[in-house]
Specification:
4 helices; mainly alpha; 84% helix; 90 residues
Length: 90
């Protein structure tokens, strides 16, 4: 299983791809990233899983609207923040 640091790095890489207009490559990377995060968070507390679910809804909404910058922001700031908080035990 990959680490929280690896997932955070991948989220940043994926966000950069969306910012550079490489949305197809970024979307494929995002699917793999979400699978990794699901595995990492499967034992997380309910409140963390709830936040993860809310982020997923937000990110899929951005993807549906083709709001690549909004999606990149969510990946870079909110998702990475969640992963950092879970890793540090907050």
């Amino acid at each position: 299983m990959k680490s929280y640091e690896y997932a955070a790095d991948e989220a940043l890489r994926c966000a950069a791809l969306f910012r550079f207009g490489r949305d197809v490559e970024a979307a494929l990377s995002m699917v793999e990233l979400f699978e990794q995060i699901q595995l990492l968070l499967r034992q997380a507390p309910a409140n963390v899983q709830e936040v993860w679910g809310q982020l997923l809804v937000s990110m899929f909404g951005c993807q549906e609207r083709q709001d690549w910058l909004g999606l990149a922001d969510t990946l870079q700031y909110e998702l990475v923040g969640l992963l950092a908080a879970v890793q540090s035990g907050r």
